[in-house]
């Protein structure tokens, strides 16, 4: 019986630990760092609206599909799809989709660790009082100097990767619960305090309008980026949530839990945006600043309020913890897979995988300094170049990895997982795992997984191609 499988990697002590782990995975740099800067770059309200629609119609069904596939198979993503496909009389090649996902997770980790490193550096800088009474230009210059220094970035990137790898080597269960139970709620409290500060800036409504007003013609502009970010924010499309589902106890209700985690994650993103943008406008900073947005906005706020130093230190510690609990969920799927396949010790597998991610991450580090001029996919003046040194258009190395993972691989991974749950596993297996009591709610959920989410993903891809 498929429902009697046991995970060789252990399981969560209770439903509560799955919620913590999944929330820890979802809430991270995606909500606090990436969401606000993307809202800024893609012009505000239209992006937010599409993002919310994608979370509800696509992200949540994909998240349910991942969790239920994981829990039914109790194995790493690639093996999970393989056994379940064989059980349902389908081709074991489905596992390739999950395999691609696990590689995507490692690519994401490569740059995630670099940015996680920035938050470590800021713990020290805020603590030293570097931002006291700082000017808007001052914070910008500070960030500019940091990212111009490859060695400092490499050092922090190395430390961040080590912290994540040590946790994974010990097994995700150990330590995760203890740290997250206190720190996640605290992060939430600090964001609310920041929001309180934003309310006093006199520019709060400007922030609200920026985040929620939109003109319909803008909806198409950020369509694919917003969908990609919905996947990124919920940690779906690569098997992170699937592997956590594999450690979930049978009693827990997947549907209720998943919706809870997704709502919490979305709520944190919106709060982070609402806290940040009023400060951006009050300080006269540029909302479309890009990846530096959070790192110039918040130190400015902390530098100009009472108890700013203490609050700033605590805040960046919490951001680093949130990033750490997300990073481990990026590493775990491939580690679990290799442990299952090769019987090599968990510690060794973790060491080598994190070393590879670290190495690829150097490309992201250098994108901000010595390789700043290296541009890929340059489309300038009607001519297209795959690579050009010194072009003004095009993507840098970080841009390429980010584009390839968030806009292409995450949606494709999600497509693979919902189609798998909706069409390969079949209605009865899904009903058995989801344990939705109301038949109407189940029918709706299954309909979202079987039709709405896959068609939605395809429509967004198509709209992007024919735009
Ligand atoms: N969701 C995390 C964040 O918002 C990042 C993350 C963890 C992730 N696991 C993932 C993104 C899997 C995509 C896929 O910071």
From TrEMBL:
Keywords in alphabetical order: Membrane, Symport, Transmembrane, Transmembrane helix, Transport
Protein topology in the membrane: Multi-pass membrane protein
SUPFAM superfamilies (alphabetical): SNF-like
Entry GO CC: membrane
Keyword Plastid part of the UniProt annotation: no
Record-linked PROSITE patterns: NA_NEUROTRAN_SYMP_1, NA_NEUROTRAN_SYMP_3
GO molecular function: symporter activity
Subcellular location: Membrane
Spans traversing the lipid bilayer: 12-33, 39-64, 94-115, 153-172, 184-204, 224-247, 259-285, 305-331, 351-371, 408-426, 438-463
Pfam family, one: SNF
Family: Belongs to the sodium:neurotransmitter symporter (SNF) (TC 2.A.22) family.
The name this protein goes by in its record: Transporter
Organism encoding this protein: Pseudomonas abietaniphila
């Amino acid at each position: 019986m498929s429902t009697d499988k046991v995970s060789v990697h252990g399981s969560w002590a209770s439903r509560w630990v799955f919620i913590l782990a999944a929330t820890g995975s979802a809430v991270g740099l995606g909500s606090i760092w990436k969401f606000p800067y993307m809202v800024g770059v893609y012009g505000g309200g239209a992006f937010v609206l599409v993002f919310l629609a994608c979370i509800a119609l696509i992200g949540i069904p994909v998240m349910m599909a991942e969790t239920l596939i994981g829990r039914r198979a109790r194995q790493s993503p690639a093996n999970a799809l393989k056994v379940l496909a064989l059980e349902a009389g389908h081709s074991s090649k489905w596992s390739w989709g999950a395999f691609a996902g696990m590689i995507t997770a490692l690519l994401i980790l490569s740059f995630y660790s670099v940015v996680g490193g920035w938050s470590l550096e800021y713990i020290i800088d805020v603590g030293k009082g570097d931002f006291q009474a700082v000017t808007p230009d001052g914070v910008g210059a500070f960030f500019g100097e940091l990212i111009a220094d490859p060695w400092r970035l490499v050092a922090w990137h190395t430390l961040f990767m080590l912290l994540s790898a040590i946790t994974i080597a010990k097994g995700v269960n150990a330590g995760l619960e203890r740290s997250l139970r206190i720190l996640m709620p605290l992060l939430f409290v600090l964001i609310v305090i920041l929001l309180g500060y934003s309310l006093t800036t006199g520019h709060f409504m400007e922030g609200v309008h920026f985040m929620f007003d939109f003109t319909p013609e803008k909806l198409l502009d950020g369509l694919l980026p917003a969908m990609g970010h919905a996947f990124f924010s919920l940690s779906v499309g690569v098997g992170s949530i699937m592997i956590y589902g594999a450690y979930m106890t049978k009693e827990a209700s997947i549907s209720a839990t998943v919706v809870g985690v997704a709502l919490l994650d979305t709520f944190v993103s919106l709060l982070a945006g609402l806290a940040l943008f009023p400060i951006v406008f009050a300080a006269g900073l540029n909302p479309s600043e890009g990846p530096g947005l959070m790192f110039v906005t918040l130190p400015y706020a902390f530098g100009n309020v009472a108890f700013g130093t203490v609050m700033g230190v605590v805040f960046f510690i919490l951001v680093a913890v949130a990033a750490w609990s997300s990073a481990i969920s990026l590493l775990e799927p491939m580690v679990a897979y290799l442990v299952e396949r090769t019987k090599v010790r968990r510690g060794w597998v973790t060491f080598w995988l994190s070393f590879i991610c670290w190495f690829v991450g150097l490309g992201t580090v250098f994108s901000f300094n010595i390789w700043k001029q290296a541009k890929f996919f340059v489309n300038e003046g009607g001519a297209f170049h795959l690579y050009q040194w010194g072009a003004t258009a095009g993507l840098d190395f970080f841009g390429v990895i980010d584009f390839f993972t968030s806009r292409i691989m995450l949606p494709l991974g999600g497509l693979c997982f919902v189609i798998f749950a909706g069409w390969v596993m079949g209605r009865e297996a899904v009903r058995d795992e989801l344990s939705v009591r109301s038949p109407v709610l189940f029918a709706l959920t299954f309909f979202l997984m079987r039709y709405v989410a896959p068609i939605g993903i395809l429509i967004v891809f198509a709209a992007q191609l024919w735009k």
